[in-house]
Design goal:
By secondary structure, this protein is of the alpha+beta class. Helix content is 31%, strand content 26%. The structure holds adenosine monophosphate (AMP) and glycine. The site of adenosine monophosphate (AMP) has 15 residues, from strand 7, strand 8 and strand 17.
């Protein structure tokens, strides 16, 4: 089989690594890919959001599957277009990707079907939103843009002044463009966060191993929100009891709700959950693998990922037994100093072999390119240094030992990935 993977970050490198282990895969193509990915896949300079360009590329390469990994092309309907042209795909169609593309949609779906989530109201009018926040008089207040905003469209306001400023920045100043023309104001929840990625064919849902992201830029969960600075899997906070509760009250009802709405979801559905004192609740849905969650979950997958893709495409996931190793995995993201704000790129990376790898850990490339045979930084998140161990402690020790051997100017990484999980 030949497979085209859309995207060019660490998540795509993890997906491509999983594909490369399948005896069923001959050639992997990536668009746009990155420096590290180019060692496993032939890369083409087509942007992940360029739907026409990707359809043209698929017509040229004639892949057996197109794996659409990032959110924006899914929300824009890349899968629909590829299916119309006769290509098999992995990823939801636009009418199901809306689960991530519109928080107003996903909150209304959860309300309609009784899926536990934070209480909320939606607004397009700033005065009404501000009046509601005043009336609730409960802080922190959570204010979210309806649409995709690169993870920046969520503001946790600690007092009225911050909440008012957030509402104004979205609804009046258009800081987030169309994504912020409608907003959700919701109740602040507390408790550990868990990510559960799940394979689904629209009828059956098969949750993967749980994981924990570390979204803030700095140690002790300080600093700005990022795309994710590191992950561990499995997540020890996700007990057997929570697992059962989530399957019955969240995972199965969500898949059934989407089907009842005429929006069957096929692909990987990301459940962002909070284990609150009142039970597990949905923080958000994403219509794709998480980044960097994929980097710690996929190394634990023992079933051939192409067999899973087939089962999803043919809607027979209920008959497939998906196997996981009982090990743990940890990923430490090395980012460019200054990320998620301003940062420099083009820095030489030392400590990698000619394949961009290391014998100490697996190196997922997020933002790298190759120039004159050398790996250079090319993005905010640069590398995801990833290791598998018999337990979380050994996976973390291995990953951090490898981090010590890789460097580039102004590299920044968190030193406390997994600490909360280990401390219990
Ligand atoms: P989201 O993009 O919706 O996942 O939000 C980003 C992050 O903001 C989440 O991972 C949570 O840490 C936090 N967050 C979002 N919604 C809430 C909420 N209702 N209560 C507390 N924290 C939240
Ligand atoms: N790591 C969070 C996300 O992929 O959205």
């Amino acid at each position: 089989m030949n497979i085209l993977v859309v995207g060019g970050g660490g998540r795509e490198h993890a997906i491509i690594t999983a594909l490369s282990k399948s005896p069923r895969v001959d050639m992997i193509y990536a668009a746009p890919g990155n420096g590290g990915i180019s060692k496993l896949a032939e890369c083409f300079p087509v942007k992940a959001t360029d739907i026409d360009g990707m359809v043209e590329l698929a017509k040229k390469l004639k892949p057996d599957y197109v794996f659409v990994a990032p959110d924006d092309p899914l929300v824009l309907g890349m899968v629909d277009r590829l299916n119309d042209e006769g290509f098999k795909t992995f990823g939801p169609r636009a009418n199901a990707a809306v689960l991530e593309g519109s928080k107003v949609f996903s909150k209304a779906l959860m309300k309609k079907y009784g899926i536990p989530t934070a209480a909320y109201e939606t607004f397009t009018d700033a005065d009404k939103a501000i009046a509601y926040i005043k009336e609730q008089n409960s802080y922190p207040a959570v204010i979210k843009c309806d649409g995709l905003a690169l993870g920046k469209g969520v503001i946790i306001a600690k007092d009225f002044a911050e909440a008012e400023a957030a509402v104004k920045s979205m609804l009046l100043d258009g800081k987030f463009g169309k994504s912020g023309s409608e907003i959700v104001v919701e109740e602040f929840m507390t408790g550990p966060e868990v990510t559960v990625l799940a394979f689904t064919d629209g009828k059956t849902v098969k949750p993967m191993i749980s994981s924990m992201d570390h979204k803030r830029a700095l140690d002790n969960d300080e600093g700005l929100n990022t795309g994710g600075m590191g992950t561990i899997a499995p997540n020890p906070k996700y007990t057997e009891a929570f697992k059962k509760e989530c399957e019955e009250k969240i995972f199965k009802p969500t898949i059934a709700a989407m089907r009842d709405e005429g929006r069957p979801f096929k692909g990987c559905l990301y459940f962002g959950l909070m284990l609150t004192p009142n039970g597990a609740k949905v923080v958000e849905y994403n219509c794709r693998f998480g980044d960097p969650e994929a980097q710690v979950v996929l190394p634990l997958l023992e079933t051939d990922i192409v067999d899973i893709m087939d089962a999803i495409w043919e809607e027979r996931l209920d008959g497939l037994d998906i196997k996981w190793s009982g090990k743990s995995c940890a990923c430490v993201v090395m980012a460019s100093g200054g990320y998620p704000e301003k940062y420099e790129t083009g820095k030489a990376i030392s400590g990698l072999d000619e394949n961009g790898q290391s014998d100490k850990a697996y190196i997922y490339h997020a933002g790298t390119k190759i120039e004159d045979g050398k790996f250079l930084t090319a993005g905010g998140r640069v590398l995801g240094i990833t290791a598998v161990g018999d337990d979380l402690r050994s996976a973390l020790d291995k990953a951090y030992a490898a981090v010590d051997t890789v460097s580039f100017e102004k590299a920044h990484y968190r030193k406390d990935i997994g600490r909360r999980a280990l401390d219990g």
